[in-house]
């Protein structure tokens, strides 16, 4: 984490404790406005998973994609290697719809907002890291939003233990994997994407844990913004 | 005399029809605005005043759009035109006015699915097939089994390749060319459901370790798109897999080539029966099941819950939109569990009738 320059709104938070001992987010950090061309940019690092995000917008939109009363949101996820496939498309859809729900798109009719997410390294919880990076980049771009959002991934191990923010290895060994996006206004579930089978009770448990973890991430968002703007003054 | 008929695309908030009768100085107006439909002084229009008159040279209304409503008489068609106009101009308000009364424009209650019909063995040339209709939504699934080499990372397993196709035939919203985002995310969702529900034991598809296995291509094609694609796809896939028969295949030890005995066919062993239920959220609070294409596009969020026969969840798929509280989610899950029983019964009944027909 030392590679990040200290002058650029760098924030970091280490090992946070939740009620269950297994429910600890990995070390995470972020840096904003590190790219010069996009209107907003950020990196988000969760353990070894790292995403670089850039936001362009509100900008001109292709006529075929123009929507008369709101802005068009486009999300592109670039994998570390090769071309984006069907899995990336499904992730793009999740991130796009989350951004659409958060952004006040009616303020920019007939324009486009493009979010580009470059996977730097995937070590589990990729979708939640994408969501966090996208939110940080949107904040950096200064686009009006009705609420913030964050992503939390939970894995349910074969023994029924819930592991929060799993690594790629834990993801492989687990019985079920659940990713939620939580909004900052009411802490409700914005998106839910799951694999594997699980009981209703386990689902509700995972949602509760994610909501709890989301509070920490939102606090981190606030701290990072505070730190960044206090430096400008 | 001139009539202004401003009947635009959705972007026009109001439809204003003004009927001027200059020499008598009376007028009739029909104004459809955001909340109110009013029709005033209809009688002032002379008997001959059909919509034909709308095509008379328009004075002072150069920007008015005139559409093809020429041949209907103003008197007879007014209520219909107004309902249709209301629907076109304010589709969301139109739906809200129904939802307020706990019903929907097609007459369903909020928690009611459209009639679901299932036909199996619809394609005789496929190894297994099924056709599902949920209301107007029609989905057909064909299964093709091919012999291939097992993947190197799992030499004792076969594999399943699902593909959802949304051709331009099924709806005007889909364009020809490579599959769009919706088709791709639907394919990924179906693949996830197959994997997470443990539908088929993939080891059973292996014939000889690291030499020969079956690959099942499950091609799901939408013929008519009227919402709730994912539910229809899952039912079609499940029924087609239950319907599929694979011939017995062996490896000839001498020639090392695969041999297929078409006479000996067996059904696949289906471990679990996942069934999906889709929900749409209106105005962040009202939840309706089995949305039509129109309801889908007007809703603020969509949710698909897949359960199996043991009431375990295989997928809770909410690809965005507005947020949903835990209680609402629980309500949806409960409905999905009852839906699973309904569909399981339907599928069993269809297979039972096939057996007796033979």
UniProtKB/TrEMBL annotation, chain A:
InterPro entries: ExoRNase_PH_dom1, ExoRNase_PH_dom2, ExoRNase_PH_dom2_sf, PNPase/RNase_PH_dom_sf, Ribosomal_Su5_D2-typ_SF, RNase_PH. Signal peptide: none annotated. Residues 25-144, 147-212 form the Exoribonuclease phosphorolytic domain. Pfam families: RNase_PH, RNase_PH_C. It is found in: Cytoplasm; Nucleus, Nucleolus. One of its GO terms (molecular function) is DNA binding. Keywords: Cytoplasm, DNA-binding, Exosome, Nucleus, Phosphoprotein, rRNA processing. One of its GO terms (biological process) is nuclear mRNA surveillance. Belongs to the RNase PH family. This is Exosome complex component RRP46.
TrEMBL record, chain B:
Gene3D superfamilies: GHMP Kinase, N-terminal domain. Pfam families: RNase_PH, RNase_PH_C. InterPro entries: ExoRNase_PH_dom1, ExoRNase_PH_dom2, ExoRNase_PH_dom2_sf, Exosome_comp_Rrp42_subfam, PNPase/RNase_PH_dom_sf, Ribosomal_Su5_D2-typ_SF, Rrp43. Its main location: cytoplasm. It is found in: Cytoplasm; Nucleus, Nucleolus. Residues 112-247, 274-337 form the Exoribonuclease phosphorolytic domain. It comes from the Eukaryota. One of its GO terms (biological process) is rRNA catabolic process. Keywords: Acetylation, Cytoplasm, Exosome, Nucleus, RNA-binding, rRNA processing. GO terms for molecular function: mRNA 3'-UTR AU-rich region binding. GO terms for cellular component: cytoplasmic exosome (RNase complex); nuclear exosome (RNase complex); nucleolus. The keyword Cell inner membrane does not apply. PANTHER family: EXOSOME COMPLEX COMPONENT RRP43, EXOSOME COMPLEX EXONUCLEASE RIBOSOMAL RNA PROCESSING PROTEIN. Belongs to the RNase PH family. This is Exosome complex component RRP43. It comes from Carassius auratus. The gene is LOC113054454.
